[in-house]
Amino acid sequence: MNKILFSPILLLFLFVSLCSAQTGNPILIDTAKKFSISKHGYFYEDKHLNLTIDSIVSYKAANKLLPLTPGKVFSKGYTQSYYWIAFDVENTLNQSVHLMFKEHSSSINQLQLYKLDDLGKIHPLGLTGDHFPFKQRPYRNRSFIYPMVLAAHEKATFFLWADKRGQNLYMPMSIGRDVDIIQAEIPQHTLFGFYTGVFVFAMIFNLLLFASVRDNIHLYYAIYIFCMLIFILEEEGLAFQWIYPNLPGLQDYMRLIMASLSCGLLIQVMQLFVNQNESNSRMFRFTNYYKRFCWVMAIIPILMLFKSFIILEKIVFYINNFLALLTVIVIIICVVERIKAGYKLGWYYFIATVMLLLGVFNYIFNTLGITNFNLLKPNGLVVGLTAEIIFLSFALTQRYNFLKKEKEILLEEKSKHQVDLADGIFNAQEDERTRLARDLHDDLGGTLSIIKLNITAFQHKVLQLTDDERVFYDKTISMIEKACLDLREISHNLMPKNFEQSGLIEILKENFRTLNESGKIKFDFVFQLGHPIESTMEVTIYRMVNELINNIIRHSYASKATIQILSFDEHISIMAEDNGIGYNPDTDKKGIGIQNILSRVKYLNGKILVDSNQNGTTTTIDIPLK
Questions:
Q1: What is the spatial order of strands in the sheet that 97-103 belongs to?
Q2: Which one, 225, 402, 462, 516, has the greatest CB density within 10 A?
Q3: What are the φ/ψ torsions at residue 165 (nearest 5 degrees)?
Q4: Residues 6+ apart with CB under 8 A from 577
C-alpha cells in the first residue's frame, strides 16, 4: 500500500480529470474550529481487497464513489471488505493552517491516509491501526489522529483506506484545528476517569464485602465489574494505549473474551441474587447450561490468537452480539419468574437489568450497523453499565435487610415446626448475623469512608461536564452515601429464529427470497418432501445447504444457481448446481466450508458427489432416512 507508482500518462490524466471529478463540494477551511466530513465526503467498498491508491484516485476521477450520508456516522456493520473514504479540502485563508483528521472509533485493523495535492502528487501520511504498535501512530492518542497542514489557498484531496475486516465498521470522523482537537480530548478523558472510578469503587466494595461476609455473590460480581471495565477500556482504545501498547491485535480478542465471560458471570450473579434453584425455577437448568456455554465461548478467542479465519471471526462476532442481548433477556425472564413466585427482592435486579438492557440494545444496534447514534455520552453501553452496577451494588446491601425480614417471617412460623429444631436454626442464624455485623462494622466502616473521600476527590474534575452529567455524578455520590448508611445499619448465559415453528423449507424459502433481493446470483429453490423429517436431521440439512450457498456466493462467480431438496422412501437428496467457474474437488478440500459439509454428511451416514468443470459445479448429497 505504501509504494506509489505513477506513469506520466496517469499523472496527466489525474490532473485533467480532477476538475470534472467528484470535487464539487469541498470542505472550505475558514476560521471555524471543526469541519464536517459527512457532508462533503465519498466512499467506496473494496470487496475484492485489491484496490490501490492509484485505483481509487482513478475511480474518484470517474465519479464511481458514493456520497457519505450527511450528518450520519459512517457505519456498515460487520464487514469483510476494505473501505476508502475521499474528501476534498480547500483552504480559503491567506495563511497556512494546521489541522488534524480524527477517526474516533479507536478500533481499526489498519488505517492509512493519503494526500493528493493540486499537482497530482500523492503523499502518504502514515500507516497505523490496532495491528501495529501504538508508537507507530502519527499522533500518540487512543483515537487515530493525522496532522494535516494546508498552505494558503491550497486545494487538496485526502483518501483514507480502512481495514476492519472481521468486525463492525463504525467510523465517526472529523477535521478540526489541531489545538481544538487536542483540547476536546480533555473532557472525554475526564468523563472516562469518572466512570472508571465508579467501576473501581464498586469492584473494591464487593471484594471487601466478600472478604467480610464470605458470600460468593460479591466475588462473582467483582469479577464481572472487572471484565466490563476492561471491555470498556478496550472499546475506547485506552487499554491498548496504557496496558499493552506493543501487543497489536490483542484488543480485538480481549473484547470477545471479556464479553463472553461477563455474560456467564452476570447469569451466575442473578442466580445467587434471586436464589434461583431447580426446585423454584423452570429456567434453572437452562441458565446453568447457558452460563457454561458463555464461558466456553470465551476460550475460542484465546485460540484465535494463535490461528484464526475470517469465517470463524464472523461466527464469533455474531454469536457474541447475540449472547449479549440474550443474556439480558434471559435474566429478565428468570427474575420475573422469581418475582411472580413472591421473591420481592427480585425487583431490584429487574430494575438494574432494564437499565443495562437499554445500553446493550444501543451498543449492539450500532455494532451491527442498524443504528449510528449514542443515546448518552460517551455511549449507551457505558452509561447503562454504570447505572446497573451502581444500582445493583446498592441492591446487594439491601439484600441483607431482606434476610433480616426473612428471619422475622421464620420467627412467626416457629410455632408450626418443631420448637427445638427451630430454636437451634435461629440461634445459629443469630450467631452468624452477629459475626457478620461485627465484621462489617470493624472492617468496612473506615474503608468505605475512605473510598467515599476518594470518589468525591474527583469533584473538581467534573466542572467541564454537562448539567445532566453533573446530576448523574451527584446521584452517584448520593447512592454511595446511601450504601454506606445501609451498611452501617446492617452492622448495627444457533438456531435460526422460529426454526421449530416454521420448519426447514419455510426458513430456506425466506433465505432465498432475501438472497434474490440483495445478491448478484439468481437462486432457484426446488423442493418436494413426501415424508416429515425429524428435527435433528432438519437442522443438519439446513447447515449443509447454508454451506453450499456460501460456497457458491464466495467462490463460484456464478450468475444462476439451483438448490433442490427431494425426499424419497429411503433417502433424501440434496443437489446444488451453479454456472460458475468450477473448481478441482480433489485438491480444494481444505476449505472450512467443504469440511463442514463433509463432516455432516459423514455424521448422517450419507454420500456426497461433486462434479465440477469450467461450466459450473454440481454437488449431490444423498442421506438415508433409516
A1: 34-35, 173-177, 97-103, 144-150
A2: 225
A3: -65, 145
A4: 561, 562, 616, 617, 618, 619
Question: Quick one: residue 237, left, alpha or beta (phi over 0 = left, psi -120 to 50 = alpha)?
Answer: left
Confidence label for 291 from pLDDT (cuts 50, 70 and 90): very high
278 SS3 class: coil
Locate the domains of the chain by residue range.
Answer: 8-171, 184-491, 501-624
Report the alpha-carbon distance of residue 86 to residue 175 in Å, rounded: 13
> Which DSSP string do the residues of 182-235 spell out, in sequence order?
HHHHHHHHHHHHHHHHHHHHHHHHHHHHHHHH--HHHHHHHHHHHHHHHHHHHH
What is the CATH number that goes with domain 8-171?
2.60.40.2380
Say how far apart CA 140 and CA 66 lie, in whole Å: 32
Q: In this structure, what C-alpha cell is assigned to residue 14?
A: 489525474
What would the grid cell of residue 262 be? 461477563
Cell numbers of 195, please?
466512570
The CATH architecture to which 501-624 belongs is: 2-Layer Sandwich (3.30)
The string of pLDDT tens digits covering residues 317-366 is 888 889 999 999 999 999 999 999 988 888 888 988 888 888 888 888 87
Residues 6 or more apart whose CB falls under 8 angstroms from that of 332 comprise: 350, 353, 354, 357
Q: What is the pLDDT of residue 88?
A: 96
**Is the Cβ–Cβ distance between 146 and 101 less than 8 Å?**
yes
The distance from CA 57 to its chain's CA centroid, rounded to whole angstroms, is 33
CA–CA gap between residue 573 and residue 60 (Å, rounded): 49
Q: Among 462, 457, 374, which residue's Cα sits nearest to residue 190?
A: 462
Single out the residue of 299, 391, 298, 398 nearest to residue 352, CA to CA: 391
Whether the predicted pLDDT of 280 surpasses 50: yes
CA distance 130 to 254: 12
* DSSP letter, residue 105: T
Q: What is the mean pLDDT of the chain?
A: 82
Q: What is the pLDDT of residues 126-178, one digit of tens each?
A: 999 988 998 889 888 888 999 999 999 999 999 999 999 988 888 989 999 99
Instruction: Please give the Cα distance from 261 to 270 (Å, whole number).
Output: 14
Length of the chain, in residues: 626
**CA gyration radius for the chain?**
30
Type of residue at 166:
G
